[in-house]
Amino acid sequence: MYKIILLLVLFKLFFIPVAQADFVDVVANIKLSVVGIGTHTPTNSPQNTLHGTGFVIGNGQYIVTNDHVLPKMLDEKLLQKMAVFIGSGKNAKVRDAEIIATSSLYDLAILKISGKPLPAMKLSDSKMYPDGTAIAFTGFPIGAVLGLYPVTHRGIISSNTPTIIPALSAEKITVKMLKRMKNPYLVYQLDATAYPGNSGSAMYDKKNGEVLGIINKVFVQSTKESAMSTPSGITYAIPVKYLHEMLSENNIELN
């Protein structure tokens, strides 16, 4: 009996803290690759507006985010530019960004930034990962009101599910929905709640930090305004296999 108790105590002392320490290291490394996506308007105050999250891949100059995060129009009269925000806290720096490729179907975008390369995240292979896989994602759930402070959420893959989301009524069905119903593809449904600013965050393997997918939407059950105070949404992520397809189609090599 005493031997069993001793073994349990030793297990808690040596094994559980090691697992926690490993995840702490993973998150610390991931945060170096997390960036903000938005606009820089030198004639405005504030000059910077954050729209979502992105992450660095490849040679340190390619950024992945959601297509819907990109600004739809830029005001040339105000000298407005699309920007990638790097660094942390209130000392974030602005990098110019060029759109390399977009996919409205998969809600993905690949950008290229100027300047010194940043630490890059490693992409997993193109297989679909099973339900129960432990994951995490790091991004800017409430934007950058107080500065760039990445926030990490963790959970599991709850389901491999088709992209179709039922409309509340027949009037709500769009042409885009009808097209997707004909050829749905699988995405990940998660048990961790994301917020609007998390769009474009890398969803990664909790053990090794490899990117498994990209957070792209939250199906909010009430209103967007109440999502922050009473989160009730279901989070979805685009599998990384579709990012691999985009990289191949646009001849982008990661090494």
Helical stretch tally: 4
Based on secondary structure, the structural category is alpha+beta
Largest sheet: 6 strands, antiparallel, barrel
Query: Which radius of gyration do the C-alpha atoms yield?
Result: 20 Å
Q: CATH superfamily of the largest domain, called what?
A: Trypsin-like serine proteases
Write the CATH architecture name of the largest domain. Beta Barrel
CATH class membership of the largest domain = Mainly Beta
Please give the number of β-strands. Answer: 12
- Mean pLDDT score, rounded? 81
SS strand fraction: 25-35%
- Low-confidence stretches are 166-170, 220-232
Number of domains: 2
Tell me the helix content.
Answer: 10-25%
Can you give a write-up of this model?
By secondary structure, this protein is α+β, with helices and mostly antiparallel strands. It has 2 domains: 31-120, Thrombin, subunit H (Beta Barrel); 134-248, Trypsin-like serine proteases (Thrombin, subunit H). Helices cover 18% and strands 34% of the residues. The chain has helices at residues 2-14, 16-31, 175-182, 240-249; strands spanning 34-40, 48-57, 62-65, 81-86, 93-103, 108-113, 134-139, 151-162, 186-190, 202-205, 211-219, 234-239. The strands form 2 sheets. A 6-stranded antiparallel β-barrel has the order 1-2-3-6-5-4. It has a 6-stranded antiparallel beta barrel with strand order 7-8-9-12-11-10. Strand 1 and strand 2 (48-57) form a beta hairpin. The radius of gyration is 20 Å and the shape is globular. The N and C termini lie far apart (55 Å).
